[in-house]
Amino acid sequence: MWIKRSPFENPKGLANLIGYRMFDGMVHQKNTKSFENAPEVPNFSRGHYLYRTRCAACHTMGQGDRLGPDLLNVVDRRDRVWLIRWLKAPDQMLAEKDPIALELFVRYKIPMPNLQLSDIDVGHLIDYMASESRNIAEQHSVAE
Ligand code: HEC
């Protein structure tokens, strides 16, 4: 995984990405003792799976900024065409000096890597981010 990345990427981002993948986001649960106590593996949708394995190291939804911006409601916040292009080639958009890309880069300091996503996977990811944002909004309205 490390070899496949660009050597020009931010080392902190890489470490975070690889660490997250290796420990499956469970780095902080040091006292997990037995597989018997392991939570059941939920049945992930393709979008959810992609998000967890490719995006969650740098992004959260509704928990504030990580290495990148929080993605809650990003599907409503950004123009759809922009979002699709961004997910496919953030590096290219930055190189072309897209105003939003520049603004984000100034704020977050590290560039989002091009993850070589297919059109189909980009579609799954957008569906997942939209539905997860709705779920979170519903949970909030129930809690109030
Ligand atoms: C290595 C960290 C990293 C990974 C992995 C990553 N991103 Fe990002 N992402 C960023 C950063 C940093 C930004 C802010 C733009 C910049 O600085 O280039 C960003 C910006 C974004 C934005 C724009 C947010 C806005 O407010 O407009 C979206 C959408 C996004 N990422 C989605 C994703 C998705 C979906 C994935 C997984 C397929 C992903 N990112 C994977 C770091 C990452």
From TrEMBL:
* UniProt entry tagged with the keyword Chaperone: no
A GO molecular function for this record? heme binding
Q: Where is the Cytochrome c domain?
A: 42-133
Taxonomically, the superkingdom here is: Bacteria
Coiled-coil segments: none
Q: Does the keyword ATP-binding apply?
A: no
InterPro entries per the record?
Cyt_c-like_dom, Cyt_c-like_dom_sf
Query: Per UniProt, which keywords does this protein have?
Result: Heme, Iron, Metal-binding
For this protein, the record's SUPFAM superfamilies field holds: Cytochrome c
Which Pfam family, any one of them, does this sequence belong to? Cytochrom_C
In Swiss-Prot or TrEMBL terms, this protein is called Cytochrome c domain-containing protein
What species was this sequence derived from? Nitrosomonas supralitoralis
The organism's taxonomy opens as: Bacteria, Pseudomonadati, Pseudomonadota, Betaproteobacteria, Nitrosomonadales
